[in-house]
Queue: 4 jobs
Job 1
Amino acid sequence: MVPLKRRKVVGNYTGAGHGGDNSPTKFPDVLLFLLERKMGASRRAFLSQLGRKKGFHVEELFSESVTHVISENNSGYEVRTWLDSQRRAQGQMMAHLLDISWYTESMRAGHPVPILERHKLQEQHNDEGEAVVFSVPSFACQRRITLDNHNTIITGALSLLAENAELSEEDGRGVAFRRAAAVLKALPEPVTCMTQLRGLPCLGEHSLRVIKDILENGESNEVESMKQSERFKALKVLTGVFGVGAKTADRWIREGIHTLHQLRDSGHALNRAQQAGVEHYDDLNQPVTMAEADAVGEIVEKAVVSVLPGAQITLTGGFRRGKPSGHDVDFLITHPEEGREEGLMSKVVSWLESQGFLLYHKTSRNSYLESANGPARPASNMDRFERCFSIFKLAKVEGWGTNQTGTWREGGMQNLNTAEDEDEHEGSCGVRGHARINPEDSRLQKGKNSHSQSQIHTGEQKYHELGKDAGPEETRPAGHKPWRAVRVDLVVSPISQFAFALLGWTGSKLFERELRRWAGQEKAMSLSSHALFDNKQKRYLTATSEEEIFGHLGLEFIPPSERNA
């Protein structure tokens, strides 16, 4: 990760006028003042400098000569109250109170654009009897967001728009919709009118239009139309194939492939991952339940402890955050002695293969290099740990038929996932915290919990007990399969990087993105799943727990159950 450059902050008291910028003023009758409140000093300095380069006169201090006051995420009432508190607004205020959208549109046009009604800040007082106006911090990593979402219809619609943008490789728009949804998830009660949203961060014009449509009509016409579009349906189907990304899906769609049946008949040469994805498509697109995650965890624990006693294994992702289901199961593995974890993955994979648990796997070596000058930009957004992407063959066990997330039916689980689950790409399972594995307290010991050793079938046992020869034909419905395929990701981390890896793999994806953005923009630091680098001090900051990392970043610690941004 390349450290984000810290923008030079121009102080508020460098004097009136251009603050040292010698760019000529093209519009002498327009004097602008950017309000720092909710905008932040760094962003204000950047926008002020941009305006001056475009020929605008941007004042550092407010004065009666200012003609346009620009603010971000504030109501007109809030701006006027702030100006009054500064004792800058004597007599009648003659300046236009404008939203940041007017300023950015003027920057793009290269001249002051006409002031439209949508640019004006509303003079909205928060009197008694009005709906409560909400307030949340600007960064998602500052908010406590549980699974108790009071605005699921709105956040679901915004999440679908984000997913569509990401499938169309418009990542910027996708992030914008994700951030807007995260703000709604943080609200303590349902939104009932648009006035409640005034002053909230991350709610752009597009998101606000969608929210307004839902509040007035019960649904968003844009979202409903998108869901019915042939392209969106095809992208959902094709990217549901394990090993297929948006680019490949888009190429297939342009070739006329829209369904799994058409893909099978197309004669396309698929790689190993895609072949496995097609073969196990139904299973891999059904939610993984808590019980299944626990059962996979017991298998992985047995594999790890058999090759490296004393190792530590943690389930990460959505289950660690309290989610009842997910798309896959992710495990983080380490050892208390630095270096003992080296070579562990190949041994674990060999054990799993020998027991018949792996339908597919692909491993990669640890390629992380720590430079004294700070971390370099990685080749992708992925971290560099030793890992194994795999598909497990998990036996169906009696007693798993009914649970919180669905019921068994022919061909797999009943799919009860909603659009809210679609943003969980960094690991969707993991719970039970951080457990040291040893023969004395391992959950794999018989009788120690509800999923006892008898419920974990090795490959040989499964073929014998649950295969085609297992009992009379009438005991199984037609088409019944005694096992299901489950995506499982295994990651091995050195103990020195474990706290950073645990934080990164716990998610949610947006929460981690916001943590990195906070580190870069507010603290001049570079955060990854490997390390935290202070760009001012030019040194790495060590941590043995997530709490220490939050402390380094100057943030209040937020437990996993409240990171569901």
Job 2
Amino acid sequence: MTSAISRVPRMSSVISKAQKLALETWNVTSLGGKESELVQKDGTDFEILTNSAAFNTFFEVSPVNERVTYLYLRVPSNQFGALGKISGGAPSYCTLPRSTVTVTPDSAVYTGETVNLKCVIESDHNLKPKPDLRSEPAGAALTGNTVTLTCNTTLSTGWDFYWYKNTLDSEIKMTETNSYSMKIDSVSDGGQYWCRAGRGEPVYYTQYSDELTLSVTVSPKAVVIIRPDEHVFRGETVTLRCDIKWGRNTEWTYRWEIEQMGQYNHYYNQYHQHKNTVSRSSAQELKISHVEVFHRGKYSCTGQMDTQSSQRSDAVALTVSSDEAQAAVRVSPQPWLTEGHSATLICEVPGSSTGWMFSWFRDADHLSDGSRGAGGSYTLSPAALQHTGVYTCRAERGEPAYSSHSSAQPLWVTGVSASVHLVLDPSRSQHFSSDSLSLSCDSAGWTVRRYTHTNTQDCSAQTGSTCAIQSLSTSDTGVYWCESESGEKRHPLNITVHDGAVILESSADPVIEGETLTLHCLHRSTISSILTADFYKDGSLIQNQTGEMNVTTVSKSDEGFYYCKIEREESPHSWISVRASSPPLLVIGVSVGLSVFLLLLILLVLLLRHKKKKGVKEFRTYPHCNVQQTSAPNRSGISQMENSTLQSGLLH
């Protein structure tokens, strides 16, 4: 008689070790000793055919060659006589442990006694599975990153996983999967971790995993460095570098981001193309060979080490000027000075002060004096006549070098007592446009030259040593001087031509210290003093409502830029310099005369003493000679020998 085997679920959930073998290699034997037949169908289902009709019969299914693995199937009492089938694939199996029952007491007992029965299960391995705990990434974790713990088992689905930190009593999380991802916010997230699995009610737990120590290190912060500067000009080469201060030998890869600054309008497409290039870069440095306006933005970066990242850098703004750099030269305190004084030329790139190297030129000749040209300044101390000239500078930075040449800056050094003078008519530094001006050198062989705007040239209306300009224009503004055929320059004067209504009348020459400085404000329509003018020095009002301003006993502190103003009309600014006073010629003559007289007097005294000693010596050596003739000179003057000696001394 054939009995049916009931359909039962797959039993892998209670098996400690899983293995699937080809079913045709298995035998099926009833525990009652009756043989049964195992039939495999389509690789997923199988049938057990048996002649057993016993109630609650169990069958053992074991490999053909080794009888160690069993599958337990129970025959329900109401399913006799039909062919049954178990679905769900090949059966799972377990190796059964050996059990021993002990009875205490182990002798005969009587009714009413207490008997203890103890079942001891012995096995070559622990029945409870033990998970294997791993972390990703392995090793030290960086704050700000995510660490994933995985509790590896050979268990099937349906298990929950429990996570513990520092002690086995402190459960921190329960998950339905065998992985647990956590954000590492601080170093305190490090420690010892364990896991185990469990299911059912009450919960059946596996063993705890071995301890896993998670080390946490503060994540380094990336820093963006921009060279040569965060503010650059069109055409420069820019290098952005992502620096990470990390004491370990670690290979980082890098991620870059750029945030838009303002509106790009005409550069929209170029900007987004550049943004894509930046986001794809994994290099430590970004190099922009020819920077343009659309490259501006806020750049930031992070470092990537396997699955972990550094802290993101602060965003650093790169600004790009729409113009190319333009170096400029200025002179402090002023470009007109007297020999012996000091002046400093300063080279600057407006809007930028970082990373520039400077070179200096005078009249297009390179100045190799590095001590004077250090940094962005060139100092003349003391200034001499040969320092007069047109100065330019060159600013450069970056690799390859990006350079900018300045416009020209004239510097004029006037002698204390000029041997050649430039004479002006009318004699003032400011002139109205359309007026006439005559300039002449007071010595033959000298011509008038000038520097206007950017170049040096001869006077356009030169006749001999005189330059006569019949109708001035603002383009005639500049510095004029006398120059010899050998190139010597003397007596430079600054001339300003103004097309406005008001000019300041002041001398083009420096004021002598101790003298009186007189200023007038002239109007184009009247060429006369304006009685209600205000006078200013270095931007501050010093005298108002007057047509003339006087500064008595001028001193060095009176140097500065002066101008006058009436209502809305303002004159150009003129630099008025103060020269130290020279001693009067009469005083010099008297001083020299007294010095010569004293020198002659000293020489006479010395000669007389010498003569007296000589006469005594002759008397002692030649006692037969007349003493009076030898030692007493003629009262009419010095002897002929003495006179000859004195003249010789003066000549020498």
Job 3
Amino acid sequence: MFGHSMLLRISKYFLLTLFVLSVFLYLLKIESRLVEKQSNNCVPQRKYALYGRHAEEGILQHVEEVMDSLGYSNTSIDDDWSLLWCHDYPFKKLKPRMMKIKPNQMVNHFPGSGYITNKVNLATSGLPYVPKAFKLPNQKGEFKDYAFKNPEKLFVIKSNNHRGINIRKITDVDLEVEGTFVQEFIDEPLLIDGYKFDIGVYIVITSIDPLRAYLYDGDVLLRFCPEKYEPLDVNNTDKYVVHDNYRPVWEVASLAKHFKNSGFGMKASLDTYLKSQGKNPEEIWQQAYEAIRAILLSKEQALVTTTEAYPSKRSFFELMRFDFALDRYFRMYIMEANMSPNLSSEHFPPNRLLYLQVIYSTLSLVGLGRRGHTDNTEMVWDPGFQKLPRDQPDYKPVGKEQYGFLEHWRKMTCIFYDWYHVRYERGHCGIGRANMSPNLSSEHFPPNRLLYLQVIYSTLSLVGLGRRGHTDNTEMTWLQAPLETEAAMKDIVVFPEICGKCTSCNEQRCKLCLWCLDKNKELKETLFFAHREFMNRHFYRRIIPPPLSEAEAKSGYEAIEGLTEINQIMHEWIRGKCLLDKSWC
């Protein structure tokens, strides 16, 4: 009797266990489907389009290469793209489309950028670091007077399409040709191994109202004339004009030993050479920075006026290359600014790395350089941007039992596309009371949520996983407003010692205080975007607003009164950030 009763009891427990296990497996299956669905919803559908006469012929090959690596797919300009990369100026033939541009779309040109790159206007601007020039035929009288007073000067005649550059005597110059200009020739150029050269400096304009611009500090483009400069023969332009078939840096012995043999970039190779000549390279680069700042500030209002006709001023950015000449006295001269600079390494394959890094850094700066899923669902991205198969030992899925403890990780990594797969790095903990897996749940203290989110986001970004794509909310995407994980109000407010005393938002500094920013949505968004650019700048350095020394940060920018109100506020905000964190200086 006892044995029969025990057997029945065991059977009941066994059946109950089977029932509970079945329910559990059923719920687990449903949960897995929800996980899969949620994960699929996180996959970004980002697209880019190309535009230009030769866009499909390989001239934008490296743009495609970078975009593909970032998880974008190529589409037509008629589709719903995130980025339209134009080799040709798009605001004429594509103007109807540009007038309908959405806030979550970006184009790599500003309306009116030709005000900066027009060769005649730049040469005859009278700005510092620009060799003296005269527009023909309008300024032929002034040119004759200048040539008469400076009989030792040589001049080159140029057209706006940059074709047919030649040194001419004044008697050989046709002063009646429209669309041309005559410019003073830099007749004592610095020569390296006997070759004249120019220096290409890349910059990006991210905003024009207020004006923000960044200079690519990762490298420069050095181009040498095909033949040695001396003895000068004005009829042989290969001696003094940098053509498309220029001599590359790796064919100039004094620089090739650094560039080719030691693995340095062009800028580092040039810096090393200049130091060997007893010069401080930073003094030379400062001249270039000042020249670029002067040009951009002089054309800002023209760009602001032109852009006002379009729906969103934040939909545009501009990558340019400024070309400089350097004379034997180490003085820099700006020769031209290039809209849509060449980014093809077809003729000079070693330039590929330069172009790829310029493109990637530019996209990162403007908030587009964030890698997502590829079409290969069997692959994930590692921090070094190398594909890892899911069966690799380093790859480890997070168990579902950890969901509660990893609430914020789950929310954050969904933003980064794959919230239930994390790549772990193996290592050893340190000494003392270091905490492995510190608490990241704000359940008991909700105000800690922002701290945990930003710690998680910064960690993922640091190891190469912090790449955010589109959300499902078409009314507010990452392109329009950075998440609080990237920047919160605590990261935007400045001048804590002043804001406690402010009584009116009419005072300029008070406009940067929390209670004033809450009343000014446009300014608040402007500062959020500026903060994101700083965090995503990669190889770029800020040139507008200009860098600050510690003394300048305490005293304030010079000549700020000459700027527009919004530019004054932007300069003051940068100064406030600098006082809080020197890396902003």
Job 4
Amino acid sequence: MVNFYQLVTQSQSGIYAIFNINKILMMYRLPMAFYYFKRDVLKPVGITLNVCYFLPITIIFLLSFTCAIIACGTQVDVTRTKNILTPKNNSIVWLLSNLPEYMFDTKQPISIFSTTLYYTASNAMQLGSHDILISTSAEILIVIIICLSGYMIFTYVLVIIANSQTIINSELTLYQSHTKHIIKFMKMEKVPKNVQREAIQYYEYSWKQMHGLHINDVLTKCHSVLCEDFLYDQYKNTFDKVTIFQYLDSTIYRELSRELTRIYMLPNVEFIKLNNIVSSMYIVHSGRIYVCGPHGRLYVILQSGSVFGCLDNVPNIRSMVSFTSSGSVDLLEIDAKRFYKIMIGPVIHELQKNMLLTNMSYVVGRNIKHALEYVPMQDASMERKQSSKSKILNGLGMAMTFLFVSCASIISMTYVTTFFPMGIAKYFVIYLFDLLHGIFLAIKLFTPYHDSKGQLITDYKLIRKRLVKQPIFYLNLLAIIPVDAIFLIDMNLQHQVYVYRALLLTRLLRFYNITSFFKKFNDILNSDLLIMKLLSIIVYTTLLLHVETCIIFTVATRGTREFAKDMWAYQPDNNGSTELICGNQYICAFYFATSVLTFSGYAIYPRTLMGISCAIVITIFSKFIMSIAVAKLSACIQNYGADLARFDEIFSEMKSFLRRSAVSEYLVKCVVYYCEQLWIRSKGVQEPYLLVNAPPYLKEQIKIAAFGKHIYNNVLFANAHPDFLRHLIQMIHLQIFFKNDTICEQGDINETMYFVHSGTIDVLYSNETEEIKVDEIQELDCFGVIQGLYERTPHTHTFRASSVSVLCTLSLKDWSHILDFYPASKFEIYETLYNMPE
């Protein structure tokens, strides 16, 4: 009976082992555990979530195939108390392979499991395991499945992470592309350096505040009531301070909140100048606004809850005062006509009462006791000096130096800890890097910085208070303290050597400096995202290879200076003894680490359980790290051409629409050619995106520097008011024409005047039989003056580009309302035109 039971048990052991694997079906619970965190997958933490999600799946996958291989290659011997797993039918299977000779009993269950897991992991990761041979068809089939499954799983992981990174970085990359375009435009148009700096500072500050998104755009996913509730909660405290809102209830507040646009201003910006034409009403959300009269006299300081701008029920007003931000300011903007449509009678009455009594375009907020208290601005020269100091000490150059010093410190420390080189001088390199970190930390105590609102902080007490709140300060301080130097004096005892090595490991805390660098400078608009990603991959890969090299060497030497003869550095020769297969210890270990990290296979074989365990961990860990690195690089390259991809998508839709419409093939070819050339020349736009969407004060400065010569040097506007000319230049728009493009036909009515910014234009006259060239217009010339000053006036000639030409256009409908505020200038312009010779 016992023999029969043993026989049945032996015959069914393999079947039982295979069916017992059905427990892996319980892994269906794993996705549910991460379901709640799916919303975070598109955040920077999403990479960590993906690794935490796929790592258990990978381990389950490897363990399952490990069990399958063991079940196919072994049998259970229940008659023995030890070594119950034996090769099936005593055939030559991988368990009995003699290449290499393992330094442990391969028949022990734990040995079989460890070796099989190593074998499975190396094949699944596409490393190839050359030290284990397979001979049965079942094993070959399983290895094929392992290789294909491993390839598919890790390709899937790579695609998931790459997709997440693409979405995360898409807005930043697009904004960086727009920033590069506006910088290139300003340099090409020779805009003054100070205007360029101001523009870049604004765009960087705007990115930090909004990250390319407006709160109203984000809330479009919500229903209208929820959107209004959220915005009302954001602005409620400000509304409570507005004097004219004392009669309002929450219903009007909620509707008003939805119409407001939040804008950000840098310190010391005169965003509404004297005699500016204003069409919007502004509410001060936070910060201070200086209101000054025509001669620079300070009238009042507006704080949170104050209202200013176009306060009357008219489309535009002419401002009699100027408004300047004293620091970083948040404003809530709404069109004046739209405001009056929302408001109820008492509010309108209060506004009209204020306009009659004070005749001012502002209303001071409630509960502001010190509206006239002047807060002096910092001396301009001192501020520039402190700003330059902050820019240098907080800039990319200083940060890069600190980054490489931290990397060198970690590499030198781990090398000394692992390889323990002879010569006391080599240990002082570690303390040299400690000294440099101490200097960097001391510099930080005196480095001005810009706060979250863009304000330059120069007070040393505030600087130090901010620094001591940051974890990086304490991590660097702990890494700097040379407690280990005490043991460097006398290390005759072995335990003192180990203590010294352990204390040296505190320098690993400087890894936080490296992660902080890339976290900070990945979002800088002036830095190239692709270059920063490549730099991060190079730095992290170098550190990973070096650390893995140190781990491999430590395992191979068991903490001593020499390789153990039963480890991978020694291999059996033909005489039955072992020989050292590599001379340089570091290079040998580095080769092993590199071959694992790059999935190229390795020719150094682990021969002990410790070596096999080390190979398993490093193999799986390296695969995930390289998947993340490749995914980040792939995502960055995709984002690098994101603007081209978006343009191409819109371009393809347009071509399809034109071909489906009743449009001649010739016109379709012209449109396609023009769009292609426009992309090559200016990224598919007539004007830089950030110039079109810039705040009025910044748009005015850039356009005056770029296009002002066309207005200031034009005899038509010679006697006009300077403030009128500022507004006029702000209304100029660019249009690009390529060779043989027609700008306007004879008889066209477009109420537009043109200024030739670059290129040449042919002037043509058409009669019933032919088209005659009558003139050629060069750079800085203009045409269509009469058509741009009088409504419904047709052009008398045809204008065609004879080369690639950039024209500044001025449409009458864009600036006719300004003439109403400058009647003297209007008279001078039309009088000058009337007196011009024909």
